[in-house]
C-alpha cells in the first residue's frame, strides 16, 4: 500500500508520466458538484469526458442540484463529510467556506499565484490570499446593454454608446396610451434585476466615485458621486418624461423578451434564454460610457475549489481535474456551450471571440469590470431596492434615501466582518 | 414474565407497543428539531462553521430591529383581517348553500376548487392580475373604462390586502365545507319547534344556528388563525423579486425567518425569530380556545 501511494504521488507530479502508470494504478473516483443549469451540466459532461480520456485512471462523478437548494445542500453536506472533492461555489461565498475550513488552497506548484495573476482577468485576484489561490473560475460574466433591433429601427435610433445617447434613444422608444399609461418602455429598470450591480460598479464609478473602500468593507457612496448616480438612475422612471417604470410587466427581462422594452441591461447568462425567444430580434452593445468616455462594468463568477474532504490520491486527482477545468481548452468549450466568458484574456480576447457580435461586448466589458465582494448579496440588493422605493413610494429625497441605504449596508458589512474575525 | 401480567396490564403493554412508533417518530422529526431550534436561538451559526454560544444576543438584536416590529405588525394584520373576513364570508356562503338545492353539488365544488389548487400557481396568476397596464387584467379593465390605474402590489398601503385577498379566497372552500357539516349536525327538531312557535328566521339564526355552531366556529377560528399567522407561500410568490415588499409592507414573520436563514445564513437569528413565532402561535391559540370555549 505504501508503495502504491508513492506511485500515486509520482502520477500527480509528473503529468506526462501519467500514461505509463495508468494501467497499474487503481481507478480513483472523485466527485464534482454544481447547480443544475442545462447548458452548464452539458458543458461539464464534455469536460469530464475529455478529462477521463486523458486520465483513464480517474473517473469524475458529477452531481447537480436545483439552484434554489444548492447553497444549503453544499453547506450541509461538506461538514457532514458527504460532500464532493471538487465543488463549484459562487465567488461571494468563498470567505465563509475558508473560515469554516471546508476548502483547501490550491497547491502552489500546479497553480503558482504569480502565473495566475498574469494569466487571468484581474478580478479573479479576489480569490487570492497571500501567495495561494483558494479557487479559480472556468468562466466569468459581465453586463452589457441589450437592445431590441425592431424598436430601434422603428424609432430611427442607433444603439447608444454614451449615457446621453441611451436616454435619447429610450425617449424615442417610449410609448404611452391616451391616459398616459406606459405601454412600451424605452428601457427596463429595477434594482431587483441586474441594475443594482450597474448602479454600484457602473454608474457610481462613472460619476467619479468608488462604491466601497477598504477592500469592500466600508461603504463609500454616500457622497456627491453616489448622489449623482442615484439621480441619474431615478430620472429614468420619475417625472413626466420617464422612459420606464419600476415593475413594468412584472420583471425587466420579461418586458424585454415580450418586445415591450427598447433596451435592457443584463448579464451574459441571459443570452441563452433570449436566443430561445421566438420573434425577438435583439443585439447587444457595451454598457454606455459617460460623455468623456469613462466606462465601468460589474463582473461575477462561479469558482471551482477543492474541498478538505479530498485527501491522498483523491486530492491528487482533484488537482489534476482543477488544472484541466481552468485550462484554455475548457474555457473555450464553456464559452461555446454555456455562453459564459473565458476567465483568461488569452482565450477571451482572441480576435474571434472579442469581435463576436454577441460575446464581444461582454468580453470587452471584462477589461474595465470590478467585482463587488458581498457579505450577503440578496440583503445588500434589497437595500438598493428599498432606496428606490423610499423615493418612488414615500417621496423621500435622494440624499436622505441614499444616506439610509449607506448606513444600513455598512451595518450588514460590519456585522459580517466582525463575526468572521471572531 | 409477560404471562404473569393481568389482562389489563397486557392491554397496556400492547397499547404502548403500538404507541411507541408514532412517539418515536414525533420525537425524532418534531420534538428533537424543536429543542434544537431553541438551542440554536442562543447561538451564532452560519450553517458552515462551528456554533458559538451568544446568550440572549439574538433576542436583543431582534427586539431592537425595526424590521422585526414591522413584520410582527404585518403578521397580526394578516390575522386580524384574514380570520374574521374569511369566517364571515364562509359562513354566509355555507348558510345559503345549505338551503340551495339547485346545482348544490356543482356550486360546492366551485367553492372547494381553489382550496385544492396549488398556492404557488394561484399566487402567480393573481400576481399577473394585479400588474399595471399592459399586463394586468384588473388595471387593463380600469384603463379601458378611463379610470386611473390602481397600484395593487406597488403601494405600501394596498399591497398587504392585495396579497391577503387570494389567500382568503383559497381557504374559503375548506371553511365552507366545515360549516356545512356543522349546519347539518344541528338537529332538525329545533328548527321545527321554532317554526311552530312562529319565530322569525333572524331569531332562528341568532338563537339556534349560531350557538349550536360554536364548536365548528372554534375549530375554524383556531385553524385559520394559525394559517394566517404562518402565511408564507402567497406572499413569497407574489413578491419574489422583492420578497415581502414594497418596503417590507407585506412581509410576514415566516418570510423574515426564511430570508434570515436561507439568504443571510444567520441561523441563530432565524431560530430566535422562530421561537418568537412559536410563542405567538401558542398564546394566540390558547387565548382563542379560552374565549370561545366558556361562556
Key terms:
heterodimer, A: 422 residues, alpha+beta, D-Maltodextrin-Binding Protein, domain 2, 2 domains, twelve-stranded mixed sheet, 19 helices, 16 strands, 47% helix, globular, disordered N terminus, B: 295 residues, mainly alpha, MetI-like fold
Question: Can you describe this structure?
Answer:
The complex is a heterodimer of chains A (422) and B (295). By secondary structure, chain A is of the alpha+beta class. Chain A has helices at 2-13, 18-22, 38-54, 67-77, 94-99, 113-119, 149-155, 163-173, 191-206, 224-235, 252-257, 271-275, 312-325, 328-338, 345-348, 351-354, 360-366, 377-394, 398-421, and strands at residues 28-35, 58-65, 86-90, 103-104, 128-129, 132-133, 136-148, 175-176, 182-187, 212-213, 218-219, 261-267, 282-285, 297-307, 341-342, 369-370. Chain A has 2 domains: 2-141 and 300-356, 3-Layer(aba) Sandwich (D-Maltodextrin-Binding Protein, domain 2), CATH 3.40.190.10; 143-298 and 370-421, Periplasmic binding protein-like II (D-Maltodextrin-Binding Protein, domain 2). In chain A, strands 1, 2, 3, 4, 7, 8, 9, 12, 13, 14, 15 and 16 form a 12-stranded mixed beta sheet that branches. The radius of gyration of chain A is 23 Å and the shape is globular. By secondary structure, chain B is mostly helical. Chain B has one domain (65-293): MetI-like (MetI-like fold, Orthogonal Bundle). Chain B is 73% helix and 1% strand. Chain B has 13 helices and 2 strands; from the N terminus they run αββαααααααααααα. In chain B, strands 1-2 form a two-stranded antiparallel sheet. In chain B, α4 crosses α7 (159-184), α5 crosses α7 and α12 runs antiparallel to α13 (267-293). Chain B is flat. Chain B starts with 6 loop residues before the first helix and ends with a helix. The chains are: A alpha+beta (422), B mainly alpha (295). Chains A and B meet through α4, α5 and α18 of A and loops of B.
Amino acid at each position: 500500500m505504501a508503495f502504491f501511494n508513492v506511485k500515486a504521488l509520482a502520477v500527480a507530479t509528473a503529468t506526462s508520466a501519467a500514461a505509463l502508470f495508468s494501467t497499474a494504478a487503481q481507478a480513483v473516483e472523485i466527485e464534482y458538484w454544481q447547480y443544475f443549469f442545462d447548458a452548464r451540466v452539458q458543458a461539464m459532461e464534455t469536460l469530464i469526458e475529455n478529462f477521463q480520456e486523458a486520465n483513464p485512471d480517474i473517473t469524475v462523478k458529477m452531481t447537480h442540484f436545483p439552484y434554489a437548494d444548492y447553497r444549503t445542500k453544499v453547506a450541509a453536506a461538506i461538514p457532514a463529510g458527504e460532500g464532493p472533492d471538487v465543488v463549484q461555489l459562487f465567488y461571494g461565498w468563498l470567505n465563509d467556506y475558508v473560515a469554516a475550513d471546508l476548502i483547501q488552497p490550491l497547491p502552489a506548484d500546479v497553480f503558482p499565484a504569480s502565473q495566475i495573476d498574469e494569466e487571468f482577468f484581474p478580478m479573479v485576484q479576489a480569490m487570492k490570499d497571500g501567495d495561494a489561490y483558494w479557487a479559480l473560475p472556468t468562466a466569468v460574466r459581465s453586463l452589457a446593454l441589450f437592445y431590441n433591433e425592431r424598436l430601434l429601427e422603428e424609432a430611427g435610433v442607433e444603439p447608444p454608446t454614451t449615457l446621453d445617447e441611451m436616454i435619447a434613444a429610450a425617449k424615442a422608444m417610449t410609448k404611452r396610451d391616451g391616459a398616459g399609461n406606459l405601454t412600451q418602455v424605452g428601457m427596463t429598470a429595477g434594482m431587483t434585476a441586474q441594475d443594482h450591480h450597474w448602479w454600484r460598479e457602473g454608474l457610481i464609478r462613472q460619476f467619479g466615485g468608488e462604491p466601497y473602500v477598504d477592500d469592500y468593507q466600508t461603504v463609500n457612496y454616500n457622497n456627491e458621486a453616489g448622489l449623482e448616480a442615484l439621480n441619474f438612475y431615478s430620472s429614468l422612471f420619475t417625472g413626466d418624461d420617464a422612459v420606464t417604470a419600476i415593475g413594468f410587466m412584472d420583471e425587466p427581462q420579461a418586458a424585454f423578451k415580450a418586445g415591450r422594452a427598447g433596451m435592457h441591461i443584463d448579464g451574459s447568462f441571459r443570452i441563452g434564454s433570449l436566443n430561445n425567444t421566438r420573434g425577438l430580434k435583439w443585439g447587444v452593445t457595451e454598457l454606455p460610457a459617460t460623455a468623456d468616455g469613462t466606462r465601468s462594468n460589474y463582473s461575477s463568477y462561479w469558482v471551482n475549489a477543492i474541498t478538505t474532504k479530498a485527501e491522498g490520491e483523491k486530492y491528487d486527482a482533484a488537482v489534476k481535474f482543477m488544472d484541466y477545468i481552468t485550462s484554455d481548452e475548457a474555457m473555450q468549450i464553456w464559452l461555446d456551450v454555456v455562453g459564459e466568458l473565458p476567465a483568461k484574456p488569452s482565450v477571451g480576447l482572441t480576435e474571434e471571440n472579442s469581435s463576436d457580435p454577441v460575446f464581444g461586448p461582454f468580453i470587452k466589458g471584462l477589461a474595465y469590470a470590478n467585482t463587488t465582494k458581498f457579505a450577503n448579496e440578496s440583503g445588500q440588493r434589497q437595500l438598493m431596492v428599498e432606496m428606490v422605493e423610499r423615493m418612488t413610494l414615500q417621496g423621500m429625497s435622494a440624499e436622505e434615501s441614499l444616506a439610509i441605504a449607506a448606513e444600513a449596508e455598512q451595518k450588514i458589512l460590519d456585522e459580517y466582518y466582525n463575526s468572521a474575525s471572531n | 414474565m409477560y404471562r404473569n401480567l393481568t389482562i389489563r396490564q397486557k392491554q397496556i403493554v400492547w397499547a404502548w407497543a403500538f404507541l411507541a412508533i408514532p412517539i418515536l417518530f414525533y420525537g425524532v422529526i418534531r420534538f428533537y428539531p424543536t429543542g434544537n431550534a431553541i438551542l440554536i436561538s442562543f447561538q451564532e451559526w452560519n450553517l458552515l462553521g462551528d456554533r458559538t454560544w451568544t446568550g440572549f444576543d439574538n433576542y436583543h438584536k431582534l427586539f431592537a430591529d425595526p424590521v422585526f416590529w414591522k413584520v410582527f405588525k404585518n403578521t397580526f394584520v394578516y390575522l386580524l383581517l384574514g380570520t374574521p373576513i374569511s369566517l364571515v364570508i364562509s359562513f354566509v356562503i355555507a348558510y345559503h348553500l345549505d338551503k340551495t338545492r339547485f346545482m348544490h353539488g356543482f356550486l360546492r365544488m366551485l367553492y372547494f376548487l381553489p382550496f385544492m389548487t396549488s398556492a404557488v400557481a394561484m399566487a402567480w396568476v393573481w400576481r399577473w392580475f394585479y400588474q399595471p397596464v399592459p399586463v394586468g387584467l384588473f388595471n387593463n379593465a380600469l384603463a379601458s373604462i378611463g379610470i386611473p390605474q390602481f397600484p395593487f402590489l406597488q403601494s405600501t398601503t394596498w399591497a398587504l390586502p392585495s396579497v391577503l385577498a387570494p389567500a382568503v379566497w383559497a381557504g374559503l372552500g375548506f371553511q365552507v365545507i366545515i360549516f356545512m357539516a356543522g349546519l347539518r349536525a344541528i338537529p332538525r327538531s329545533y328548527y321545527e319547534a321554532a317554526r311552530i312557535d312562529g319565530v322569525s328566521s333572524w331569531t332562528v339564526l341568532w338563537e339556534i344556528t349560531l350557538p349550536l355552531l360554536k364548536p365548528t366556529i372554534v375549530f375554524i377560528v383556531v385553524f385559520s388563525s394559525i394559517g394566517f399567522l404562518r402565511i408564507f407561500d402567497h406572499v413569497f410568490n407574489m413578491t419574489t423579486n422583492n420578497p415581502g415588499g414594497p418596503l417590507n409592507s407585506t412581509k410576514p414573520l415566516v418570510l423574515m425567518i426564511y430570508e434570515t436563514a436561507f439568504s443571510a445564513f444567520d441561523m441563530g437569528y432565524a431560530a430566535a425569530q422562530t421561537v418568537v413565532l412559536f410563542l405567538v402561535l401558542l398564546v394566540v391559540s390558547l387565548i382563542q380556545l379560552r374565549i370561545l370555549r366558556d361562556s
